[in-house]
Give the backbone structure.
Amino acid sequence: MVCRQHNDVMTGERMDQALDERQQAELRARGVARILISEEEIQDEIRAMAAELDVEYGTDQPLMIGVLTGAVAFMADLMKAMTIPLEIDFMAISSYGAATKSSGVVRILKDLNADIEGRRLIIVEDIVDSGLTLQYLLEMLKARAPRDIRVVALLKKDKPDAIAVQVDRVGFRIPDEFVVGYGLDYAGRYRNLPYVAVLDPSEYAGK
Ligand code: IMP
């Protein structure tokens, strides 16, 4: 009997295509239309930001303030990439709830534990959209007489009608689209995506 071996070795091109199709299927299954900023791009940028902050603060022991809940992923990676002594604290401000547009309503849900008088503060924000949240936060923190305040945001939307608010360092400027992942949610979901993505419109259709 003659045994003919079936040639099932994939060419590089076919493997790439198969991989691409698998990734696309995974994204669809997670409700994601497309990845805007990859995990690798985020981590590279965070390393650069951390190095700058290390140089800026040295032994001053800054207090990093994370704005809950969206900044959690960014803050965790940023502080681990920094090598200087620092402290952390969190604030929670009311956000958009399940809607994809700002309600314009800002209120404190959780205040800081630390006394910030005379301290050097680094505010860590996930995204600056209208700028409303940040403007409110800055006014409130300045009234408590810190030594200085620096605002570091992972994302900033290109929005012509946004408030001109202090943002000292932006990781990525993005188009005015609703994004999720890497801490950012839609209706409480998608925060655990390791990248920043645009949702498939069917995920919020009719809401
Ligand atoms: P702002 O007050 O309009 O600048 O909005 C700030 C907050 O709104 C952010 O800290 C986020 O929690 C939320 N936000 C704004 N844009 C988006 C988005 O595209 N996806 C998810 N959350 C967003």
